[in-house]
Amino acid sequence: MVRKVKKKKSVINLFVTFPLMVVIVVLVYNSVVTTGNQPIFKKEYDDRAASVPSLKIEPDPSVSISSDKLKSPNAILIRLTDDTILMQKNSEEKIYPASLTKMMTAIVAIENLPDLKEEIKLTNSTFQGLYEADASLAGFQPGEQIKAIDLLYGVLLPSGAECCVALADRIAGSEQNFVKIMNQKAADLGMANTRFENATGLHDGNHYTTVKDLAILLSYALQNDTFREIYTSSRHSTQPTNKQASFSSNSSSLRIRPSTPPASKHPGGITFYNTLFEELGNQNIVGGEILGGKTGYTAEAGLCLASLAKVDKQEYILISAGAKGDPYTEQYNITDALAVYNSIRK
């Protein structure tokens, strides 16, 4: 008799519990559906309405040059209006990006700086290891206070490593912490074959990418008005800086070494020149124009270039890497860009 009562209670409990579970499931489901378009976690970056590029392949007969004719072993040509790959050569092969890294440094800095007019002080630690590595520098000195916007120009035009480190320290407290943001941004953009170890592009065996990933990065970054303005500038003069510095530089030089004689301030500011346009000189595209770009070089990376051009009212980006030579030989990264853009039938 007792067993029958217990069994009856179990049946009653089952009938009560099951509908209750159904109600809970429905409520949870409705909550998920209702909030489905809301982020569960706050995004770390403000993408400023920029869309993540989704590259698609569409070989274009209007591009007459064969990729085999290029001096660069790795290259990719993208039509920017629809992110279509028109030509590629070993585009998913691992490369060392050298100073093309600074495109990521710049866009991450732009998206994370609350005020581009903010002044950032450069210290002795900003320059630690840069002289020894023979890094390319913009010409600033320890002790100077520089507007963030001028540092960004220093990153992309003369390829200033001290500008990268100063921005990284300001935003993340250290270059190492800033690199974590760079790698997260790469993941967010779908740059699956990219890993950064520093903000400057100085060689590291674990610091690598592909020209395809760099094309995704540049296509995204060019949607940002500040990045595009800097990237397409041929020159920029900074605001005056009057702080006494413990080290000096020749402001007309793009590279500084420890042997630089002591001494000066920059009361008149510094004028930067885009390294691409310096190498390009009077050369350009027939029926078009190279609008901007970023050069890169290390002994391990070879000659690299990320460029933006307009041909017959269409915009294109070309990323190339690994060309033989150095800053003192023929610039095959530049000649490859001219050859590719000139091969696009108008």
Output the helix-strand order: HEEEHEEHHHHHEEHEEEH
Q: Strand percentage, roughly?
A: 15-25%
Which structural class do the helices and strands define? alpha+beta
Largest sheet: 6 strands, mixed
CATH class: Alpha Beta
The overall average pLDDT, rounded, is: 83
**Rg calculated over all Cα atoms:** 26 Å
Assigned CATH architecture? 3-Layer(aba) Sandwich
- Determine the fraction of residues in helical runs and give it as a percent range: 25-40%
Question: What secondary-structure arrangement, pairings included, does this model have?
Answer:
Layout: H1 2-34, E1 56-57, E2 74-79, E3 84-89, H2 102-112, E4 119-121, E5 145-147, H3 148-156, H4 161-172, H5 175-189, H6 211-221, H7 225-231, E6 235-237, E7 271-273, H8 275-280, E8 288-298, E9 302-311, E10 314-323, H9 332-342
Parallel strand pairs: 1-3
Antiparallel strand pairs: 2-3, 2-10, 4-5, 6-7, 8-9, 9-10
Keywords:
346 residues, alpha+beta, Beta-lactamase, 6-stranded mixed β-sheet, two-stranded antiparallel sheet, 9 helices, globular
Describe the overall structure.
The structure is a single chain. This protein is of the alpha+beta class and 346 residues long. The chain has a single domain, classed as Beta-lactamase (3-Layer(aba) Sandwich), CATH 3.40.710. Helix content is 33%, strand content 16%. The chain is built from nine helices and ten strands. The strands form three sheets. The chain has a six-stranded mixed beta sheet, sandwiched between helices. The protein has a two-stranded antiparallel sheet with strand order 4-5. Helix 2 (102-112) packs parallel to helix 4 (161-172), helix 3 packs across helix 4 (161-172) and helix 4 (161-172) crosses helix 5.
